[in-house]
Amino acid sequence: MKASQNRTLSPRARLACLAGGLMCAMGVSTWAAAPGPGLALKTVTVQSVVGQGAYSAEATVEAVRDTRLSSQVAGRIVELPVKAGDHVQAGQVLVRLDQSVAAQQVKGSQAQLAQAQAMLVAAKGDYERAQHLYKKEYLSKAALDHAEAQYKAVEAQARALSAQASGASVQAAYYTVRAPYAGWVSQVNVSVGDMASPGVPLLALFDPAALRLTVQVPESVASRLDVLKPARIDLPNEAGGARQQAGVRTTVLPALDAGTHSATVRVDMAAQSLQVVPGQFARVSLPLRTSAEGGAGAGKLMVPSASVVERGELTGVYIVTDKGEARLRQVRMGRSSGGQTEVLSGLQAGEKVAVDPVAAAQAASR
Fold it and tell me: Which of 281, 344, 319 is closest to 60 using CA atoms?
């Protein structure tokens, strides 16, 4: 092993030059151990990787079916069998109003219908007898027509009263509020004895089987979202970390907010545990379209993170020429991920980079 030394350099300075593998600023060659005979530097070829890219934002969990239930009629609340936090089944009674007046109306309608049906039976009998007498020429045509008109009039009245009785029964059913689907009662706004009015919410119900995330994204980002690729969802857990999962479907609503010029994006989630509830905070990473798919930017130059040399303010990599010579080149680096670091400037696709910068530094000092 050969070494050249400058008497003006201290031993510590000479060791620093050896460890860094860099040429001293004074132009004096440093001593370094060259690779042994038959050893070659391990290299990787710089390639342009078309990265997907993603837009990260804060999101809010919401239920696909989140209902504010109210009554269709006015009345005093006489029964409230549920409270916030209860799980209910489809069709279960949630609120019952005083329906005494409606019940009387139903009874009155049913009585009128029964009377009309009795009159219909009598009118039908008279009409049938009139037809029989007319055939035997015991009754005139005018009398037959009169009997037929009476029968049809009573029949029409019976149909009208039947519809009225059905309407009264439907109206009476409005005094009972039932669950439209199975879910959880998230909020109760009334108590027994309160007056209910049409359109005023009585309680809130949501279906935990179908949840989604809602996020606002800038207009410029919304046009670049790749809705065909699943979004990444990060939900906080009890330990302070995050649980990651993939979104089922991503939908960008067509309308923009006039004030913020942002679009609403909905990400459907898979079935969740009971720990995930509407209103919860989450983070979502939305994939962006690549340049080949319509324009998110050019490909990225990536190198192994282990090949990057950092010495003070200098950041570089050792490139290996076609002749096998290792040369240090200053580069500007970007983000690192998965053992790879993006090169923003200083390299071109197709160049070879030494994976082991220490071995490359020894080879460069020979």
Answer: 281
